[in-house]
Every structure is written in C-alpha cells, then in structure tokens.
Design a protein that fits this description.
By secondary structure, the chain is mainly α. The protein has 20 helices and no strands. The chain is globular, with a radius of gyration of 23 Å. This is NsdA.
Length: about 500
C-alpha cells in the first residue's frame, strides 16, 4: 500500500533540497510526517494513501509523489510555519486540475466567471466536510497571486452592441423588486456573519451564491446582469470571508478571486477594492505582509477616483497593518494618520455608502490602528514603545465594540488584542482577565479565528509566566467550550 503515494522515474530523481530544508526546520521525524500525511488523506477521503518512513525518505531523495500528497504536504507545512508554503516551494509538482480547483490565474470573461463560480460553489456544497475541498486546493502567493490580480485593472474589450434575441423563457427575466430582495438577503447574511461568526451560515451563503449563478445563466437585460454580478461578487466575498474565519484558507482565497472577477463584470471598482482588502488581510494572517501590501496598493490604485472616503480610510488602515508586519514604523504611522484623517472626512461628508463598507466604524478604525501598533511591537522585538502606542487606541476600540451588539466577533477579537498588549507590557493578570472576558463573547459566535487567537494568547501567558490555578481553570474551560476546528456549516 505504501507505493500508492509515489511516482516518478529513477532518471528524474535527485535530492529534493527544498523539501529537505522545510522538513529539517519543521522538527518532524519521517514517521511523524508520514502519520500526518495519512491522517490528512483520510480526512479528505483518500483512503488509498498509506505512507511510511521509507516513502518519506524517497521523497527527500527526489521521488515525486502523486496527487493529492503534494497539496497535503503544502497544507501541513503552511500550518506548521504559519505562512504560505506552496507546492512549488517544496520542490514538488502538481497534476493538472479542473479550473474550479486549480490556481487563481483564471480567464477574465463574464460567461467563464459564471461557470467557475457555479462549479466551485456546487463542489463546496457537495464536499463541505472540513478539509475535503480545502485540501484539493493550494494557496497562491507572491507573483503567482499578484500578477493575475493586476489584470483586474485591464479594461474589458468592448463587445459590439447586438440586439439580443427574444428569450423563449421570459419568466427568466428578474423584476426590480426581485433584485431588491436578493440584495437585501445579502445584507442579512452579512449581519449574521458579524453577529455570529463565519461558521454558522456559511453553507447558506454558498447556496445563495449558487442560485445567483443560475440566474446569470438565464436571459437577462444588461442592467439586470450587472446587478446580478454585483450580488454574486458580494456573496462570493462573504463566502470567502466566512471560509477565512473558520480556517478554510485555500477555499477562502478561491472565493475572493472569483468575487473580484464578478465585481469586474459588475463594473464596481470600489467593491473590487474591498475584496482585495480581504485578500490582503488573509495574506497578513498567513505571514505574507509583502503580498498584502501589493494587494492593498492595487486596491487603492484601482479605486482612487471612485471609492468613498470611508472605503479609502479602510484601505489606509490595512496598508498600515501590512507596513507594521513588515517592520516599517514610519510608513505604519503615516498610514495610520491617513486612515484617521480620511475617516474624519467620511464623517464630515456623510455621503451614502454601500452596505459592505458600513462595518468600518470608529470602533473598527481604532481596532485596526491599535493592531498595527501591536504588530509593530512584536516585529520590533516586543517594543514597549509601540505597545504603549497600541494601548489607548485598543482600549477605545474595546469600549466602542462593547456597545455594539451587531459586531460581537470584532468585540472578541479586540478583547484578545487588548490581552496581547498587556502581555507585551508584562501584565499577565490583566491579560488573563481580558482573555476570560473574550471567552464569554467567543461562546456566542462560531469563529475559528477567534478561538485560535484565544488559544495562542493563553499559550503565550503560560510560556512566559507559568500556570496558576486561575489560568489552568480558564484553559480547561476553553478546551471544553470552544473545541478545535468545529465543522463549517
């Protein structure tokens, strides 16, 4: 059975130095890596995979394993190091896959965008067990991600105006009230996500997205088609955000990419910039701040003449997060000031805003800027100077989110952020008290992102200051009340 995991000829073999480097740094033994590959294979239904230490040794010696092992190892090493470790980074090759589960360099055409969203959302609904669809995907990073996204700015070739034939199924035409209802349903899904986290209604959003692609495949007027593409873009972005929130990172990236394609077809550049900001946040989470910065600059450039001040403020705040994680204090502070000034302009202008940007409130602005200073403190070797800059801004964010019943996940994340600030200031008791408060909020939402940050914060307290009875009790309650990797539904 061990032979089912390998491939390649003897003539092709030479030691795989890239895989060997990652393997040595991981600290795993050959047996441990084999066990993890087998366990992940079983989770995704590939029960024919049965790897052992001799097979791992042959991979290190240059043997090329067959799919799905390269993608499984990409995911395992990415999780181990907290950053994107692509299949190519491991010196491995992947087999050709269908467009719905392959990379992010997709054709920028309307009909193919509809087909790809339809196929991917259907696959997600059918194979929605945690890890199944996600392990059939790989995360893109670096030029493989940035260069295809830059095509968002390339104008779509003009198509000669042709009077469409009268459709046989006139019932396929949507009325204005029906479109209004679809848009209001998307707003409702967004509210649910903010209140309850990404794990509670993800499947419902994916199902609604699939229904919208069905409508796009029917004869519609040009104006209706544009509105449907915008709805599809918002739903795909939300499906990506929810997937990111529950830890399905490759799935999230795929939805973000498809959302950007749909936003382009809908002619909505500000919405496209918002989608790129979500992709940027994911790259920061995955330890790729340089990619995050590229995505944010692409978003800013593409929407510079049409985004509202609130959207521009959000983009500046994300730019600050990227610079902070790159360890660039002066550029971080400049972006923070630009975010604050532009947000003040938004309040003064008081112009109509799309629903997707209304989340960016004073609380959110303070939360983002505080996290920028906090991240800068960690990158700068736990700098007390930057931690002291973060504290009053984070306190203000916590104060405002405590009054906001609609954004409970953000409240929990900022309580945890405040706990990490106290940890930087060597105040473990305050850190634990805030973590305990965050646990109470986290129980009300389904967010693996919140749960993971809470676990990491408590682990840091234990590592730096040791355990006491209160901390042991809190850790036990966390394990009971927030089990790891709850299934996304």
């Amino acid at each position: 059975m061990g032979g089912t995991g390998g491939g390649g000829t003897q003539a092709e073999k030479r030691p795989n130095e890239q895989l060997t480097s990652w393997f040595v740094r991981s600290g795993w033994s050959k047996g441990e890596l084999a066990r993890q590959v087998n366990r992940r294979a079983r989770q995704m239904g590939a029960n024919h995979i049965s790897t052992d230490t001799s097979r791992v040794r042959r991979w290190l010696d240059g043997e090329q394993p067959r799919e799905p092992i390269p993608r499984i190892m990409s995911e395992l090493f990415s999780e181990r190091f907290g950053c994107v470790v692509a299949v190519e980074d491991l010196g491995l090759r992947t087999a050709h896959q269908a467009p719905s589960v392959s990379g992010v360099d997709l054709p920028w055409t309307g009909d193919q965008t509809v087909d790809l969203i339809s196929e991917f959302s259907r696959s997600d609904l059918m194979l929605a067990r945690r890890g199944f669809l996600g392990t059939s995907l790989s995360l893109a990073a670096g030029p493989a991600l940035i260069e295809p996204m830059q095509r968002w700015l390339v104008p779509t070739p003009a198509v000669p105006a042709v009077e469409p034939p009268t459709p046989i199924r006139r019932s396929g035409r949507l009325s204005g009230p029906e479109l209004d209802l679809l848009e209001s349903t998307t707003v409702m899904f967004r509210q649910w996500d903010a209140q309850c986290g990404g794990g509670l209604r993800r499947k419902a959003v994916v199902g609604q997205l699939h229904e919208v692609t069905d409508l796009l495949q029917e004869p519609q007027t040009e104006e209706t088609r544009r509105r449907l593409f915008k709805i599809a873009a918002e739903l795909a972005e939300l499906a990506g955000w929810m997937s990111y929130d529950v830890g399905l990172q490759p799935t999230a990236q795929k939805y973000f990419v498809l959302a950007l394609h749909a936003a382009k077809e809908g002619g909505d550049k500000p919405l496209g910039s918002y989608i790129l900001s979500g992709m940027s946040r994911q790259m920061i989470h995955l330890g790729r701040p340089d990619d995050a910065l590229e995505l944010i600059h692409l978003a800013q450039y593409g929407s510079r003449d049409c985004a509202t001040p609130r959207t521009q403020a959000m983009l500046y705040a994300m730019e600050a997060r990227a610079y902070a994680n790159m360890g660039q204090p002066s550029k971080t502070k400049r972006a923070v000031r630009m975010a604050e000034d532009t947000f003040a302009d938004a309040l003064e202008a008081n112009e109509p805003e799309p629903d997707w940007i209304r989340f960016f409130s004073e609380a959110e602005l303070n939360g983002e800027n505080a996290h920028s200073y906090r991240d800068l403190a960690y990158v700068a070797g736990r700098s007390p100077t930057y931690a002291s800059l973060a504290q009053p801004v984070m306190e203000r964010a916590v104060e405002l989110f405590a009054k906001d019943a609609e954004h409970q996940r953000s409240y929990a994340l900022n309580l945890i952020g405040m706990a990490t600030v106290h940890l930087l200031q060597k105040e473990p008791e305050q850190s634990v008290a805030l973590a305990e408060k965050a646990l109470g909020v986290a129980r009300k939402v389904r967010s693996e992102r919140v749960n993971t940050r809470l676990r990491k914060t408590l682990d840091s307290v234990v590592r730096e200051f040791g355990e006491d009875n209160k901390l042991v009790d809190l850790t036990d309650r966390l394990a009971r009340q927030l089990p790891e990797a709850a299934e996304a539904v």
